[in-house]
Amino acid sequence: MRSIFLIWLSLPLCLLVGPGFAESGPDLSQADREAIQQVISRQLDAFQRDDESEAFSYASPSIQAQFRTPAEFMRMVRTGYNVVYRPRSTRFLDALVLSGQVAQPVEVVAADASVLMAFYLMERQQDGTWRISGCMLGAPQGQAA
């Protein structure tokens, strides 16, 4: 049932990734791409160390407002996003700009060796830094659910 929910949740994003909808984004420089990957990597590392405060610091202000405390945020990650909380491995794919929204796909191998795609939605802050504004999980393209 959970995999059906994850596929349903990621379906709109997968449909947008089709030809003509995704662009490499002239507004997304190589430095931006590297900064985005660093933010996600640092949050994943904080999850591995159970560092609630650091993991929470990479979330966008709207996510922080929604979960209010690092402990509440980590509780949500542990229960709903265990694959990114404790991945066996991760691999960054090319970032996409979809209707102005930056999405960073990450192939995640779970502890049980299953493979999922994590689409991190990124938000540039007024100071130019990047924060994570959401994460959607789904099956990799071409793989049955």
Produce the secondary structure layout:
Elements: H1 2-16, H2 30-48, H3 52-57, H4 61-67, H5 70-80, H6 82-85, E1 89-92, E2 96-98, E3 101-109, E4 115-124, E5 130-138
Antiparallel strand pairs: 1-3, 2-3, 3-4, 4-5
Write up what this structure looks like.
43% of the residues lie in helices and 24% in strands. It has 145 residues and is α+β, with helices and mostly antiparallel strands. The chain is globular.
Short description:
This protein has helices at residues 2-16, 30-48, 52-57, 61-67, 70-80, 82-85; strands spanning 89-92, 96-98, 101-109, 115-124, 130-138. The chain has six helices and five strands, in the order H-H-H-H-H-H-E-E-E-E-E.
CATH architecture label name: Roll
C-alpha-based Rg, rounded = 15 Å
Report the sheet with the most strands, covering strand number, pairing sense and barrel closure: 5 strands, antiparallel
Name of the CATH class? Alpha Beta
Number of helices, where a helix is a run of at least 4 consecutive DSSP H or I residues: 6
Q: Write down the CATH topology.
A: Nuclear Transport Factor 2, Chain: A
Poorly predicted residue ranges: 1-26
State the share of residues found in helices, binned by percent: 40-55%
Structural class: alpha+beta
SSE string: HHHHHHEEEEE
What general form does the structure show? globular
Q: Percent of residues in beta strands?
A: 15-25%
Topology, number of strands: 5
Rounded to the nearest angstrom, the distance between the terminal CA atoms is 11 Å
Number of domains: 1
Instruction: Report the mean per-residue pLDDT as an integer.
Output: 83
